[in-house]
Structures are given as structure tokens and as C-alpha cells.
Specification:
Elements: H1 4-14, H2 23-30, H3 44-53, E1 59-62, H4 68-77, E2 82-87, E3 90-96, H5 99-108, H6 111-117
Antiparallel strand pairs: 1-3, 2-3
Helix pairs in contact: 1-2
Length: 119
């Protein structure tokens, strides 16, 4: 699902009543790229909400030496929410919130191979 605003509203509806807020307030808190057609990368607070409030299933992949080309490719090609975890200002791992993309990356054996072949 690439429509972040619609996804945000669907997820807000799943939150406990006391954690709900209007989509216009939550949207810029959860997403890195606020453009309507922009990528699905989560902010720190978005990642926290997906994991702790919504308890969504997620998948981990090692990610070292993230370069600009890979960041742009992820922004364009990943169709489901994801988060990039950094440790000591270095990209450490990719966390996907979509089993289909996780399976495909595993089959390709490498995120960059997946991004190069998958559109």
C-alpha cells in the first residue's frame, strides 16, 4: 500500500482511543517523506508507533554503509513501511513492515540486488 495518508488513517483507527489523533497531526510525525507519492520510510516516532502501539509484525535485515543511491532506490521501490536503524550514526539495519518484500529480499539474498531487479 503506497498511499501513506490512507494507511495512516487505517492504523490510527486501530489505536486505543486515548492514543488517537487526527491524521493531519500523525502523518508528519510518522513519515520521513511527506510528499503524497513519496517513500514509505518511517521516522523514529513512526517506528515506535508501529512496533509498540500497533505491534505490527516486522522483519530485520543487516544494513551497513547506506549510500545515497540505495536511499533513493528504497524511497522509490519499497511499497510498504520501513525504518532504517542507525547506531553511532552508521546505518545498522533495515526493518520492514511487509512480509512480501521481506521474503523477496531474502530470496535475492541482498537488499541492493532486490532494489536493482525489482520495480
Amino acid at each position: 500500500m503506497r498511499d501513506k495518508r490512507q494507511l495512516t488513517q487505517l492504523l490510527i483507527d486501530q489505536l486505543p482511543e486515548h492514543n488517537r489523533a487526527p491524521v493531519d497531526e500523525i502523518y508528519p510525525i510518522w513519515w520521513q517523506n511527506l510528499r503524497s507519492g513519496g517513500g514509505m520510510r518511517l521516522t523514529d516516532r513512526g517506528y515506535d508507533a508501529f512496533c509498540n502501539l500497533l505491534q505490527l509484525e516486522h522483519y530485520y535485515f543487516p544494513l551497513a554503509g547506506l549510500d545515497l543511491h540505495t536511499v533513493i532506490a528504497m524511497d522509490r521501490k519499497l511499497q510498504l513501511p520501513y525504518y532504517v536503524e542507525f547506531r553511532k550514526r552508521v546505518s545498522h539495519q533495515l526493518i520492514l513492515f511487509g512480509s512480501q518484500e521481506a521474503v523477496l529480499i531474502n530470496l535475492y539474498g541482498d537488499l541492493k540486488k532486490f532494489l536493482a531487479k525489482h520495480s
